[in-house]
Amino acid sequence: MSSAATGTRPHWSVGRALAVQAARRPGEGRLWPRLIAALLSGLLATATFPPYDVWPLAVPAVALLVLACRSQRPRRAALLGLVHGLALFVPMLSWLHIVGVDAWLLVALLESAFVAGLGIVLALVTRLPGWPVWAAAGWVAEELARASVPFGGFPWGRLAFGQTGSPLAPYAALGGAPLVSFVTALTGTLLALAVTARARGLAVVVAAGVGVVAVPLAGLAVPLPTGGKAVTAAVIQGSVPGTGLHFLGRREEVLHRHVAATERLAAAVRLGTVARPDFVVWPENASDIDPFRNPDAYAAISHAVAVIGVPVLVGALLDGPDADHISNTGIVWTPQGGPGQRYVKRHPVPFGEYIPFRKQLSGLTSRLDQIPKDFYAGTEPGNLDLGNVPVGDVICFEVAYDGLVRDVVDGGATVLVVQTNNATYNGTAQPAQQMAMSRLRAMEFGRSVLVASTSGISAIVRPDGHVVAQTPERVARTLVAEVPLRQGRTLAARIGPWLEWGLSGLALAAALLGVVSARRRDPA
């Protein structure tokens, strides 16, 4: 019996060792070099966004993460994706430290969790033939998930938003931001293929290298609209009395600054030094007090509109629709009829403009007291008429959401307006990052984009993404320029969300095939 026991123990030990060895993926390698690669890839990705704008770095960033996750077990790949995400989002979202260091790091960690999922997808799909395509589709799926949940998602950090100045940006006219992200990722995955394909022969390496060059060059051939019947638009940046979270503390000060800027514009028009605009755009929160509750504010706005003599789109904070809410609203104010059409912001920012689970979270932090009332979420797209010009209004962060911008184009907008208030984030990268999104939307939908900010960055952007005029931050400045009105819809507008959903479904199907392939190869 002791002999039998002695004979079985070596058998058991060898069998277990063989099982453990079989569980290790071929080529999995040591972890720390891959962690360094994931960290570096995230830092390279960060550098593609403002304030750096080094868009070519997106290609090696994608390639490095793919190479790091390739041949890895899902748990390892998730860790690598998480490291990439933290290296990307912690520096890119550093402007959130103004709200609180805890908020900054929690948002960065939440966004990075989605990239951990992307790491798993990359590990699975790189086992399949044609993996550069499936891996690139995985990026689209990850960005779709981040832009959807929780609380309506947070699309910051999409590959597309770092490519505004690149040859890949014109792809937006064909398939929107999702297609730009896809072709950017595809260029990177083809580079990864070129690095790993030496054993498969020179032809594969050359083909992959040609793809790395051809995909961006093809973007230069995508036509972007520029012409159309022109109108003259004015964008008012009245500035604010200070920066930080409490810039609205001086009652009516922001409103008076925008009234004064409009009066200066009217004086310049009378002198003939500035062309008379067909309409004027004020920014989000230009009226820091409800003009329908405050007669002085109502009179001040009416005076400014009468002086300039054309319709003004006024951004205002309104009380209601009930005692527990306020509304972030764009109001069409005309010289003849006063206030008319309104757009109420449809996507208030969670924990910035409303508090989810307010009852449960009350008492945990005093910062919630800074938002005593939740912002009401509007239900209708921002299609408004400004002096017989159909415009599409989105407010601040809404420009980051594909569907909110697409809705106003579908509703007949010939010009896009982004009313924003970035005073809290002046001196950080946030205004420039948001501005990059506005430029991409111009190309995506073939519309001029008028960005009106309280204290910068305000801008006038042509339908091809070219910036006609732009203000610096923290100064009062008025921009006046001719902008083309366009009615036709780009292919991206006609396709809508279907390309994004299709690519995401493709990535999911490929990941499932990767699971099946792994089980067949290693049934134990």
3D architecture notes:
This protein is an alpha/beta fold and 524 residues long. The chain folds into 2 domains: 28-223 and 498-521; 229-349 and 364-487, Nitrilase/N-carbamoyl-D-aminoacid amidohydrolase (4-Layer Sandwich). 47% of the residues lie in helices and 15% in strands. The strands form 2 sheets. Strands 1, 2, 3, 4, 5, 6 and 13 form a 7-stranded mixed sheet that branches. A 6-stranded mixed sheet has the order 7-8-9-10-11-12, covered by helices on one side. Helix 6 (131-146) crosses helix 15 (498-521). The protein starts with a helix and ends with a helix.
In short:
47% of the residues lie in helices and 15% in strands. The chain is of the alpha/beta class and 524 residues long. Helix 2 packs antiparallel against helix 3 and helix 6 packs across helix 7.
Series of secondary-structure elements, N-terminal to C-terminal? HHHHHHHHEHEHEEEHEEEHEHEEEEHH
Number of helices: 15
Q: Name the beta content range.
A: 5-15%
Structural class: alpha/beta
In whole angstroms, how far apart are the ends?
Answer: 31 Å
Low-confidence stretches: 1-26, 244-249
Shape: globular
Evaluate the radius of gyration. Answer: 26 Å
- What's the average pLDDT? 91
CATH fold group of the largest domain: Nitrilase/N-carbamoyl-D-aminoacid amidohydrolase
**What is the second-level CATH architecture of the largest domain?**
4-Layer Sandwich
Query: How would a crystallographer describe the biggest sheet?
Result: 7 strands, mixed
User: Which percent range fits the helix content?
Assistant: 40-55%
Count of folded domains: 2
Instruction: Identify the quaternary structure here.
Output: single chain
| CATH class (first level) name of the largest domain | Alpha Beta
CATH superfamily of the largest domain: Carbon-nitrogen hydrolase
The tally of beta strands, per DSSP, is: 13
